[in-house]
Amino acid sequence: MRKDQYRADMLYHMSLSVAKTMRAKGLITADEYAEIDSMLLAKYQPYLGRLISENA
Q1: How far is it between the farthest Cα atoms of the chain?
Q2: pTM
Q3: Phi, psi (5° rounding) for residue 11?
């Protein structure tokens, strides 16, 4: 994995972690979480993130 791919994956997972916490606390709905995940996939285009995303 190249350095830029690693960085994209790291940023995707860090951002998604915030959304997961918000979802767990009831601050966002499941639909909003799915939308955030899709937006983050489009923004960061993570190499490994697409394999584990529920919305890929």
Answers
A1: 36
A2: 0.81
A3: -65, -40
Which is nearest to 55 in space by CA: 9, 2, 16?
16
Placement of tokens 């997961």 in the chain: 20
CB 31 within 8 A of CB 55: no
Percent of the chain with pLDDT over 70: 86
Q: Would you tell me how many other CB atoms lie within 10 Å of the CB of residue 24? A: 10
Query: What is the spatial distance between Cα 43 and Cα 26, in angstroms, rounded to a whole number?
Result: 24
| Triad 21, 27, 30: Cα angle to 5° | 80
Identify whether the C-beta of residue 33 lies closer than 8 Å to the C-beta of residue 23: yes
